[in-house]
TrEMBL record:
Belongs to the binding-protein-dependent transport system permease family. FecCD subfamily. This is Iron chelate uptake ABC transporter family permease subunit. It holds the Pfam family FecCD. One of its GO terms (molecular function) is transmembrane transporter activity. One of its GO terms (biological process) is siderophore-iron import into cell. Residues 1-24 are annotated as: Disordered. Its main location: membrane. InterPro entries: ABC_BtuC-like (IPR037294), ABC_transptr_permease_BtuC (IPR000522). One of its GO terms (cellular component) is plasma membrane. It is found in: Cell membrane.
Length: 354
């Protein structure tokens, strides 16, 4: 598509900031600090609220002067890994969702657009069925391998033809691969009751019952994926103008998509391995962020990285108190919260091409 055929895209090209003292930059920086405060409050609530409520003073004492003989201190200590994993998984899914919407120029894209989630889930099922893996730390390697393999297959299929891996071909290839992998996954599950029993507790998506071993196992992959994704802001700004315009500006489109896909694979594979498939975080949060930051991915990515874990941790807290004494898994809670919000966003304004 020629440059003249995309006047609206050019008119909405993110402008380079004039400097750190511009009013827009100061406003966004203030909002970023406010988002960080909201995340901190969500984390404090996650440690204090549950089947056994803990007073704020007791929470502080448990963190600063832990007493092994104090039952409330033990409860606080047990909730910290759950909260940390919620923050890490939420940040990973928010970053991955924003990056996927940018690289695919599709407002309905989420990490599943490349078949990443389906690939990770299918690999985990194979790990359980073939190799007898039962620990979350063992899921990490299978989830990462499955996510990476799915992304490579989708990109290779979408690259066939003269135009290469266009956004539409990426979406179609991802949807087709996801459907095929989920069919194979179902075939494995119906043939093994033991695999089904193990897999269904992971499949629902939850941050409960995880320990520091799980966090340490996925932390290197999450850190590497976050560094890659955050650094792609300028690349995604160029891709948002269209492939022809981006090439005209000197950008290597294929390389940009490959780097972004690598970050998404690391983030989604590690987060999915640790917490299971959690829906709507990567789909809704970038739209919410874009509504007050504009189209500049240099701001969309960091905001998504902070706002997504705030939503996930808050949803986890809500799941603990809605149906006491039991808990609603966070994967269910985020779907209940995210679906109406996304419908409201779609009805409120037309989702333009990214």
């Amino acid at each position: 598509m020629s440059v003249a055929a995309r006047p609206s895209a050019l008119s909405h090209r993110p402008a380079a900031p004039a400097g750190p003292q511009t009013p827009g930059s100061r406003r966004r920086a203030g909002l970023l600090l406010l988002t960080l405060l909201v995340l901190g409050l969500a984390c404090a609530a996650s440690v204090a609220i549950g089947a056994r409520p803990i007073a704020p003073g007791t929470v502080w004492d448990a963190v600063t002067a832990f007493d092994p003989s104090n039952g409330d201190h033990a409860v606080v200590l047990s909730r910290i890994p759950r909260t940390v994993l919620g923050v890490l998984a939420g940040a990973a899914l928010g970053l991955a969702g924003a990056a996927m919407q940018g690289v695919a120029r599709n407002p309905l894209a989420d990490p599943g657009i490349l078949g990443v989630n389906a690939g990770a889930a299918f690999a985990v099922v194979l790990g359980i069925y073939v190799f007898g893996v039962t620990r979350l730390t063992g899921y990490v390697w299978f989830a990462l391998a499955g996510a990476a393999a799915a992304a490579v297959v989708v990109y290779l299929v979408a690259s066939l033809g003269r135009e290469g891996a266009t956004p539409v071909k990426l979406a179609l290839a991802g949807a087709a691969l996801s459907a095929g992998l989920m069919s194979l996954l179902s075939a494995v599950l119906v043939s093994s009751q033991q695999t089904l029993d193990t897999f269904r507790f992971w499949q629902v998506g939850s941050v409960s019952g995880r320990d520091w071993d799980t966090i340490l196992a996925v932390l290197p992959f999450l850190a590497a994926g976050a560094l890659i994704a955050v650094s792609t802001g300028r690349m995604l700004n160029g891709l948002s103008l269209g492939d022809d315009v981006a090439r005209g500006l000197g950008q290597r489109v294929g390389l940009s998509r490959g780097i972004t896909a690598l970050g998404v694979v690391l983030l989604c594979g590690a987060a999915t391995a640790a917490a299971g498939p959690i829906a709507f975080i990567g789909l809704v949060i970038p739209h919410v962020v874009r509504s007050f930051t504009g189209p500049d991915y240099r701001w969309i990515l960091p905001f998504s990285m902070l706002l997504a874990p705030a939503l996930l941790v808050s949803a986890d807290v809500a799941g603990r108190v809605l149906l006491p004494p039991g808990e609603i898994p966070v994967g269910v809670t985020t779907a209940v919260i995210g679906a109406p919000v996304f419908i409201w966003l779609v009805r409120r304004r037309k989702l333009a091409e990214l």
